[in-house]
Amino acid sequence: MEQFLLYSHILLWLIQVLVLFLIFLLYRQFGEVYVRPASSVSKDGLQIGERLPAVESVESLHAQNKPIIIHPAEEKPTLILFASQSCKACTDLIPHWNMMRSKHETNVNFITVFLGKKEKEAAAQEWDGDLLFDPAAELFSACHVKVTPFAFMTDEKRMIIDKGLCNNEKHLTKLLSSLEK
């Protein structure tokens, strides 16, 4: 009987640790808990004042067999969002992204860069703006993006003027307001 109690006690502790780990993952998925401090996450990506790199391996959903220009020829600032189609925080951002684009599309280019291949485009159809796919993660790596959704605000010359995690309308507004500075 004592052996049964010992094993059941050990099993209960193992289940408790597993449940706590799953709760941690759940909170992390909703953006409530970060493995690293928020200050170190904000240091991710290229630094403010650097130029956005040109990368040739991304595929556009709209431009078939055309060279990809990360910064469109129109001389407008650009908001570039790095996202993953399997990211819950990214899909939660869709209505806010589309609303902000409809408000600011005359003054700002909106580009979403997805990690993965263009063949998985079904989930990306809900996004407004230019959609790019980075199958080899070359642009993600060139821009030092490690978490999604992460965004850069650039000026007309592809110089980064603001950046950061972009989980909601407030974050999008902060990035867009950096144009007024």
Can you offer a commentary on this structure?
By secondary structure, the chain is an alpha/beta fold. The chain has 2 domains: 1-33; 44-180, Glutaredoxin (3-Layer(aba) Sandwich). Helices cover 35% and strands 18% of the residues. The protein has helices at residues 2-29, 38-42, 88-104, 138-142, 169-177; strands spanning 59-60, 78-84, 109-115, 130-134, 150-154, 160-165. The chain has a 6-stranded mixed β-sheet with strand order 1-4-3-2-5-6. Strand 2, helix 3 and strand 3 form a beta-alpha-beta unit. It is elongated, with a radius of gyration of 20 Å. The chain starts with a helix and ends with a helix. Residues 63-69 have low confidence and may be disordered.
Topology of helices and strands:
Layout lengths: L1 H28 L8 H5 L16 E2 L17 E7 L3 H17 L4 E7 L14 E5 L3 H5 L7 E5 L5 E6 L3 H9 L4
Parallel strand pairs: 2-3, 3-4
Antiparallel strand pairs: 1-4, 2-5, 5-6
